[in-house]
């Protein structure tokens, strides 16, 4: 082993210089001592199910609409099942190590995700979702459309701003558009829960940097400073759009969003 990687059987890291076993078909990597616990049969994983460690959103999306990654659907489903009574949902951080471990576990699993019901702290599930979105190679609104989103949100007239935002949303890549719609409907449900105490303003502060980001992968310090309040403004304006607008993107094939 040159670069330390986790064992696919026990999950602990295989250290530098140690001997390991790697399958030449499915690329499964494990300690030599874990060989007996390894499944005897191997099925090469189809390419479209193998998720990258990082990528653009479309790399994680399914092949049939709505194009919302299974990881996003499963996190949101779990949060809505048992998190809508939690104060500070998405604002209170989950344990950083658990967030990293579960994100790695979900990405390694590809399309067949392990159940998140075993995660005791719902804030860890929220952390996994935020960390996944932050880890994309470009934000959900994309680098190319970033300036258009900022301009649309800056329009003083609410009606004109809404019209401009609807137009920009429709220009997003399908996977980005569907996932944004799915998340907006979810965040609206969170904002309507009195127990969460997370109104649109609070949610926009949390998700502005995550969903809107910057217009390039390496923004200047000045761009970071100027973008931050405008990112929040974009998310707040998006959350002010009527739910029916967002439902139009995801409810045509709603049954596909039920995680297996």
From TrEMBL:
Residue intervals of the Rho-GAP domain: 55-246
Domain called Phorbol-ester/DAG-type: residue spans: 1-42
Pfam name, any one: RhoGAP
Keyword hit for Zinc: yes
A GO CC annotation given for this chain: spindle midzone
GO terms for MF: GTPase activator activity; metal ion binding
GO biological process: mitotic cytokinesis; mitotic spindle midzone assembly; Rho protein signal transduction
Domain of life where this protein originates: Eukaryota
Keyword annotations of the record: Metal-binding, Zinc
InterPro entries named in the record: C1-like_sf, PKC_DAG/PE, Rho_GTPase_activation_prot, RhoGAP_dom
Transmembrane segments: none
SMART domains per UniProt: RhoGAP
Gene3D superfamilies assigned: 3.30.60.20, Rho GTPase activation protein
Name of the protein described by the UniProt record: RGAP1 protein
């Amino acid at each position: 082993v040159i670069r330390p990687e986790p064992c696919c059987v026990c999950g602990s890291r295989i250290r530098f210089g140690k001997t390991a076993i790697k399958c030449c078909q499915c690329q499964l990597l494990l300690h030599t001592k874990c060989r007996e616990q390894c499944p005897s049969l191997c099925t090469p994983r189809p390419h479209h199910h193998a998720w990258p460690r990082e990528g653009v959103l479309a790399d994680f999306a399914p092949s049939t609409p709505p194009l919302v990654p299974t990881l996003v659907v499963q996190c949101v489903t779990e949060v809505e099942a048992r998190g809508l009574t939690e104060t500070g949902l998405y604002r209170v951080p989950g344990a950083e190590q658990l967030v990293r471990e579960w994100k790695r576990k979900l990405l390694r699993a590809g399309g067949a995700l392990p159940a998140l019901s075993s995660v005791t702290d719902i804030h860890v599930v929220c952390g996994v979702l935020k960390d996944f979105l932050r880890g994309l190679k470009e934000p959900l609104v994309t680098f190319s459309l970033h300036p258009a989103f900022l301009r649309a949100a800056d329009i003083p007239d609410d009606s004109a701003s809404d019209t401009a935002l609807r137009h920009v949303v429709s220009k997003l890549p399908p996977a980005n558009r569907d996932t944004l719609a799915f998340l907006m409907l979810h965040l609206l449900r969170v904002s309507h829960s009195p127990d969460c105490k997370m109104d649109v303003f609070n949610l926009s502060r949390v998700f502005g940097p995550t969903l809107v980001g910057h217009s390039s992968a390496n923004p200047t310090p000045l761009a970071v400073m100027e973008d931050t309040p405008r990112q929040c403004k974009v998310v707040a304006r998006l959350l002010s759009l009527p739910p029916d607008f967002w439902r139009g993107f995801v409810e045509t094939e709603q049954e596909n969003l039920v995680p297996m």
